[in-house]
Amino acid sequence: MGDAHIPDFASLFSLKGKVAVVTGGSRGLGLSAASALLQAGAAKVFISSRKAAACEEACKTLNALPNLAPGAHAISVPADSSSLAGIKHLAAEVAMHTQHVDILLANAGATWGEGFDTHPDDAFAKVMDLNVRGVFNVIRELAPLLEARASVADPSRVLITASVAGLVVGTLGSNGTYGYSASKAAVIHLGRNLAVELGPRHITVNSICPGFFPSKMTQGLLKQAGGVEEIAKENPMLRLGEPSDIAGIVVYLSSRAGSHVNGAAIELDGGAMWAKGGKLMTPAKKTKL
Known about the structure:
Blueprint: E1 19-23, H1 28-39, E2 44-48, H2 52-63, E3 73-76, H3 84-97, E4 103-106, H4 121-147, E5 156-161, H5 178-198, E6 203-210, H6 219-224, H7 228-233, H8 243-254, E7 265-268, H9 272-275
Parallel strand pairs: 1-2, 1-4, 2-3, 4-5, 5-6, 6-7
Helix pairs in contact: 1-8, 3-4, 4-5
């Protein structure tokens, strides 16, 4: 009978009263995740991206959601996650509003598509800096706030937005995303290392690996590959990712339901990476993303 008893099942997926920080939260997957955190009961969600106007607009949209808990709100904190100075600014601004952070979604990222022979060094460096170094820096700088009220029973959570491109071969040819694929493989393994390092500090670290979700970052690749409908036909689930898919995995990993998940890299692509035999898509015409 003991195995059948799950204490307080009604709150298993609740984020009541939690405080979250979302980098790259002004649009796309980050905005969907921020919306999910607030609607699941979070009290404060800090939205960060490089552009102040985008942060303000995102917060305006989030704060107008009809089903938020009383007093719950999104807070704009513009910052450049590609630089240590920008991340230190983010941490300092968040610390002015709160003494603790329960959830960090390291979502800010960039990509670049160009052929191997002409792939620019500065583009490769920019992608690696933001997608890997920036993730490490933001976790390190926010670690004191993440540790502040974390416990064995209720650990704080770090979620890294990786990609299935870090698990299989990404886009090759004239639109090769070499730096992006390498950066996502690197950040997944970084997450595993930090899961072991920070677990004893009562912080879990997990990576979410989305496939194709229609967004500003993926629109160039989707167009070159024939559009959303053509790509959807190749997916075992016959569709691409939707905001609710991101919402579900973010709430799961951030809630009590996901408190014993640590060091995972969860694919969120409908099984497409397996259907294509370990390759994301066929080579496409050169496109800057």
